[in-house]
Amino acid sequence: MEKDQLSIDETTLLVDLSEATDAVKEGSFEHALNLLKIILKEHPDHIDSLYLAAVSSRYLKQFDDSKEYITSLLLNAPDMARAYQELGHLNRDTGDEEQAVIHYRQACELNPALMAGWKYLYQYFLKNNNKPAADHALEQINKLQSLPGVLLYIDQILNEGRLGMAEAKCRAFLKENPTHTYAMSLLAEIANRLGYFDDAEFLLEKAVEFKPDDGDLRMKYASILRKKQKFAKTIEQVNILCDKYPDNLTYQAQKASEIMQNGDHEEAITLLDNILSKNPYNFSTLTSKGHAQKTLGRTDQAIKSYQSAYQIKPDHGEAFFSLANLKTYSFSGNELDSMREQVERVDLSLRDKAYFHFALAQGCEVNGEHDEAFFHLEKGNKIKNDQSQYSIERMEKELKAQEAACDEAFFKDLGDGGCDTKDPIFILGLPRAGSTLIEQILASHSMVDGTLELPNILSIAQGLRGEDIYGKLGNYPKSMESLTLEQRETLGKGYIEDTRMHRKEAPRFTDKMPNNFRHIGLIHLIMPNAKIIDARRYSLDCCFSMFKQLFAQGQEFSYGLAEAGSYYNSYVKLMDHWNSVLPDKVLTVNNEDVIEDLEGQVRRMLEFLELPYEEECILFHETDRLVRTASSEQVRKPINKEGMERWKPYSKHLKPLLDSLDEELLKPEDIVMINR
Per-residue pLDDT averaged across 451-459, rounded? Predict the structure, then answer.
């Protein structure tokens, strides 16, 4: 069910709601509120009714009632941007400007199509001499004012997560206006959010043909090409922008970013330095330069770049978080004080606020201030969770579908087939479970190339969902039943060809995409000889480490203790299933075993992979290669126990995690400790 409650189809409710909506539009707020109270008596959690009741009560100056309706609304729809905007209106009308700014910022970040929020922020930023923020707000206002009303509405409901409704209305608009490029970009965004990257690419390609001089469109097109691993075409589009607009430093910076995606961080740094020669105060470019230096292992240089960035813009949360994310950096007292001051700013974006909370958590932990550290972890994770569409129930259903479709009979019926390659080594599991360490060990072998977290298997799975209407789950994994031997071989060969750009000369290569554990059945069907390693870590260590990490994208299950625990349960159950129906297909490697007996586990992995033993694998920390994950600095140090039992100082806060994990995944003494 979508959060907009469209499943409620009682005729009376719909008629009353329609009448109430019209009454609000006409300014008949008392009449509207009477109708809404009738609806809410029968359906107290009905989102649209709660919203309209809050609006009506505010206009009637029944401010306490309005706040009560908004509170109920946010309990049922924590990511509803219009609710935060309405809260901003309420704070404005009651004279609380600071709270109004906070809620308008929340609203506009969740939904950039909210005109009223941007107008208030524009006036606030002007009054407080924040010209960059005021200019940005004005740009948004001008953009929204140029849109037809229906597209503005589609933009709003799209950003509220009502993808099905947005898709239907967008298609209807395009039927009447087939060359409207903004509508095409909206439909492409819907397709992108649902994983239909082919559709998104087609729409944006056509939009760029209609408006070749629209830089924003071409940037969106380049972005989807990157998602599809079409790096040559991505660079081609960015080069067009850079050639056409040579003075646009944003496009130059995007080119550097794309070059980094291709693995050429030295060239990227050269480009970034060129941008900085023209604008030495470009804090975002300094941060990007720090990322490139970090990936190359130049930690001291990265630190200087991040520090320079925040010195230019003290509220640039990403720079502080990037320092924290090195895992080896200790903040000074002045830096901690600065972050504490910045995180309380009323005009701080939610994005920066999340960055500051996660950075402060790391800084406080280093100083032994675990209660304050957890406070910031809770705050940072709540921001991310409120912006997420993640559902425990939906994820459990998705993983159980793999078990139901890919049973023993399924593999027996389909028999042998697929591409017979032995090239790929899939390293999968959960984030923060030691997969980067395993990859670094294996990539130190002369016969193995270490690559990236490759999205190719996820893309193949997406392509098997069928032609269902957007918003539905599709028929994958059941659709695998209809794959012919030829199709399976073609998919396997396609995977090898599409990933070749990430390899060098070694005969084997790693694919370290953790979420591929969901698709082991698919991997087996298209590449039955591929080797798979399951990187596993003790439940409390793994889940809490995920909760502590602000991921670049995805991994939405990590932004809540209960969500992380539930996901861990489901992961273990699915892996148990794969090990049952595909015996000897997967080698489970426990992080704790690697720490206790490095050589023994290295020999075990190499034997499984049918590779000769090489001492270099033991000396993995000396291997010179690009590492882009959150563990990049950790895997450049010898094996150590620093990451074990980091949850214990937080034990009194971890009851939600304990309650969400299956008991057999926990040590009895740890249960006692958390329950104490």
Answer: 87
Q: How many other β-carbons are positioned within 10 Å of the β-carbon of residue 114?
A: 26
Q: Which residues of 15-40 are buried (b: 16+ CB within 10 A; e: fewer)?
A: ebbeebbebbeeebbebbbebbeebb
**What average pLDDT score do residues 209-233 get?**
89
Q: Look at the chain and report how many structural domains it folds into.
A: 3
Which amino acid is it at 451?
A: T
| Whether 457 and 504 share a structural domain | yes
Q: Are residues 397 and 373 in the same domain?
A: no
* C-alpha span between 284 and 301 (Å, rounded): 16
Has residue 449 been placed in a domain? yes
Is 476 a member of any domain?
Answer: yes
Is the Cβ–Cβ distance between 101 and 378 less than 8 Å?
no
Residues 365 and 416 in one domain: no
Strands (E), 349-405: none
334 and 481 assigned to the same domain: no
Count other Cβ atoms within 10 Å, centred on residue 665: 15
Q: Angle 557-491-224 (CA atoms, 0-180°, nearest 5)?
A: 55
Question: Among the three residues 111, 145, 179, which one is the final residue of a domain in this structure?
Answer: 145
**Those residues with Cβ within 8 angstroms of residue 413's Cβ, 6 or more apart along the chain or in another chain:** none
Last residue of a domain, which of 87, 115, 145? 145
pLDDT tens digits, 627-660: 545 444 454 456 767 778 999 999 999 999 999 9
Whole-prediction pTM: 0.78
In degrees and rounded to multiples of 5, residue 510 shows phi and psi of -95, 145
Domain assignment present for residue 78? The answer is: yes
Asked if the structure places residue 480 within a domain, the reply is yes
Question: Contact, 144 vs 113, CB < 8 A?
Answer: yes
Q: What percent of the chain has pLDDT over 90?
A: 62
pLDDT above 70 coverage of the chain, percent = 93
- Rounded to whole angstroms, the Cα distance separating 496 from 491 reads 9
Nearest Cα neighbor of 628 from 346, 294, 266 is 294
- Distance CA(660)–CA(308), nearest Å, equals 42
Q: How far is it, in rounded angstroms, from Cα 272 to Cα 573?
A: 46
Q: What's the CATH number where 108 sits?
A: 1.25.40.10
Q: Is the pLDDT of residue 468 over 50?
A: no
Mean pLDDT in residue range 112-118: 89
Tens digit of each residue's pLDDT (9 = 90 or more) over 162-203: 788 899 999 999 999 999 999 999 999 999 888 788 899 999
Pair 329, 419 in one domain: no
| End-to-end Cα separation, the chain, in angstroms | 39
Dmax over CA atoms of the chain, in Å, equals 80
Q: State which residues form the domain around 376.
A: 314-387
Q: How does the average pLDDT of the chain come out, rounded? A: 89
The β-bridge partners of 316 are: none
Closest CA to 448 of 640, 620, 632: 620
The residue to which tokens 């990227």 are assigned: 268
State which H helix or E strand residue 64 sits in.
helix 63-76
If asked whether residues 334 and 435 sit together in one domain, one would say no
Same domain, 374 and 417: no
Place of tokens 């189809």: 9
User: Do 492 and 266 meet the contact criterion of CB atoms below 8 Å apart?
Assistant: no
Q: What is the pLDDT of residue 106?
A: 82
Sign of CA dihedral 317, 322, 327, 329: negative
Task: Clarify whether residues 557 and 465 are in a common domain.
Answer: yes
Give the CATH number of the domain where residue 560 resides: 3.40.50.300
pLDDT tens track for 366-410: 999 999 999 999 999 998 887 777 888 889 999 999 999 999 999
